[in-house]
Design brief:
Distance between the termini: 61 Å
Helix content: 40-55%
CATH superfamily of the largest domain: Response regulator
Number of strands: 12
Order of helices and strands: HEHEHEHEEHEHHEHEHEHEHEEH
Mean pLDDT: 92
Number of helices: 12
Strand order of the largest sheet: 2-1-3-4-5-11
Number of domains: 2
Radius of gyration: 22 Å
CATH topology of the largest domain: Rossmann fold
Oligomer: single chain
Length: about 325
């Protein structure tokens, strides 16, 4: 049986072991960063921003997320694993605004704070939310599409996937503008399809885009403009327009940017791209978590902004810095 002195030494050693586990053994705060996926260019820029913030804040980040943006189970497993490991904080872009609520609540219940980024989460357990004002960004897309169409024509929306709060808010912002203010300015504008989902990959978005264009008889003038709310739906729609010979005829407004999308913009196959600042999103998310862990005050909501990229402004210094942070 341990005497009082031995028991005290045992407890002290155990406490030190737990502390070392949570800080990686070096006293450095360990923050898990969990994106929606890891393949799109958007997430690579987020990762770069997170790495820069980690160096500046003197923290360690562990970057891990599902390969594809439709693997909800994998993302839940990642969050639960980081919770079990006892990291100091979790920075999470939830694939579902509801399905990750339980995992976040469990982490917070174990003393691990959570910062949500990119896409909102139901509830109030998280310390902060760092993201684009997606509804405003969707409205920006609507305003530009109405302008390039001259206030008339037939428009389709290829949505992303159900449960994704960020893209749903973009879609809502776009539709609210087109059905609201645009009705007075552009009474000849028609929304002919708004309920189709492209899914999480370029392949699924391409297949859905081709069937959507065919269903609306786009080749005979049944579609004049398109809105797509993320990188995979935008690229899938671009490929479908190219395959059907409609690239440069139908006017698409997309979301997010990659080299191939910017090249298509320069060629006139895309009329505009609403671009977030993924580097800034990753940077501010980690900075916010580091500040929160050090008991500094943080804002509950941090808007990282969005810009409309067109052929006319793509080569400006401001836009180039956004596209190549």
């Amino acid at each position: 049986m341990m005497n009082r002195r031995e028991l005290g030494a045992f407890v002290a050693t155990l406490s030190l072991a737990v502390a070392c586990k949570k800080t990686g053994g070096s006293g450095t705060l360990k923050i898990a960063v969990v994106p929606k996926g890891t393949t799109h260019e958007f997430w690579k820029a987020v990762h770069a921003g997170a790495e820069k913030a980690a160096k500046e804040a003197g923290v360690e980040i562990v970057w891990k997320g599902p390969l594809k943006e439709d693997d909800l189970k994998a993302q839940i497993d990642v969050v639960q694993t980081f919770t079990a490991q006892g990291v100091n904080g979790i920075v999470l872009a939830p694939l579902s605004d509801k399905a990750l609520v339980g995992s976040v609540k469990a982490a917070v219940g174990q003393g691990i704070p959570v910062v949500i980024f990119d896409s909102d989460l139901a509830g109030s357990d998280h310390a902060s939310f760092v993201a684009t004002d997606n509804r405003a960004a969707g409205r920006l897309a609507g305003e530009h599409l109405v302008k390039v169409l001259g206030g008339k024509g037939k428009v389709v929306v290829l949505r992303y996937q159900e449960g994704s709060a960020s893209t749903a808010h973009r879609e809502d912002g776009f539709l609210e503008y087109v059905r609201g203010e645009a009705v007075k300015k552009a009474p000849e504008l028609q929304l002919v399809s708004t309920n189709q989902y492209g899914g999480a990959t370029t392949e699924s978005a391409l297949a859905k885009a081709e069937s959507l264009l065919a269903a609306q008889n786009a080749g005979a003038g049944g579609v004049d403009g398109v809105f797509t709310p993320n990188e995979s739906t935008t690229f899938g729609m671009l490929l479908a327009l190219q395959r059907t010979g409609l690239a440069g005829k139908v006017k698409p407004i997309g979301f997010d940017a990659s080299d191939k999308l910017v090249e298509a913009l320069r060629r006139g196959e895309i009329e505009g791209l609403v671009v977030q600042d993924p580097f800034k999103i990753g940077y501010l998310s980690v900075k916010t978590m580091a500040a929160h862990l050090r008991k500094e005050p943080v804002d509950k909501r941090i808007d990282t902004g969005a810009k409309l990229v067109t052929k006319a402004n793509v080569d400006t210094a401001e836009i180039q810095a956004l596209l190549h942070p």
